[in-house]
DNA sequence: TGCAATTAAATTGTAAACGATTTAAAGTTA
DNA sequence: TAACTTTAAATCGTTTACAATTTAATTGCA
């Protein structure tokens, strides 16, 4: 690559990732609107559908989001009746997040979303898996600090 | 893939893209802090360093950002003295964006960022290019609506 | 035990990000 | 030419996102 091309927008890996992220999340909207939730709510529920209850900090780590982001998100989800937040008995600093019945029931309605979204990416399941694995590998090898 | 695995967080392509995007942008911070700009300012400058002046709408299209996002971004960059915004003579609805001398000069200071960032991804140039091209292809084939 | 250090979540301030609406200019047509 | 439509950017409201700080609980240790 020519030296002067390094600053071209279309050569930036980050911009490609960043734009794909936003555009894919935009495609979730019609599906998530039906459930009355946002993408952030959705990924929060994905974690909780796997692990319920879960400590606040663990949830944040899974989602790569910090307390400044998650505290208001979880409060709004609590307000919607999707989950409850409670202090842990053995350590009053920690918060435990649990799904409500409503939060658990949403899982059924969400069950068809992943395949419909895969369809919208126009990728074969194999291509999607390969790309996802590449990104996971990249994520792992990024410097933490 | 087992049917019940579709809703697992780690199987979601979107979440992998979304998380990579945020983590890579976080790695830009030390570099951009030195220039006193944000990542959004940076990609705006990347476009302007290639095309100057440029119509507002064209800039938005390049960046996949809408007027609601870009109007305040460009106003803040104007305030910093990086660019100027002016109505077009032949069509008073349109805004033309031009770099200032300061905005042009930043390009030199930014010249080393892309290679330093590539280094931080721990990817070979070939791997990075392949991944970027895959994402561009995906972006192109996503439904517009 | 008592106090410093650490840890966890909340809070604060700033900057995106985007859908929906508004305002104003330009184009279209009856 | 006047009314309607379209287009462009700005504005508004809501939700993320994160760095930095604060508050409160716990842990370590002198």
From TrEMBL, chains A, B:
A Gene Ontology BP annotation from the UniProt entry: response to stress
Gene Ontology MF term list: DNA binding; DNA-binding transcription factor activity
InterPro entries (alphabetical): HTH_MarR-typ, MarR/SlyA-like, Transc_reg_Sar_Rot_HTH, WH-like_DNA-bd_sf, WH_DNA-bd_sf
Domain of life: Bacteria
GO cellular component annotations of the record: cytoplasm
Keyword Transcription in annotation: yes
Protein name: DNA-binding MarR family transcriptional regulator
Protein's organism: Pectinatus brassicae
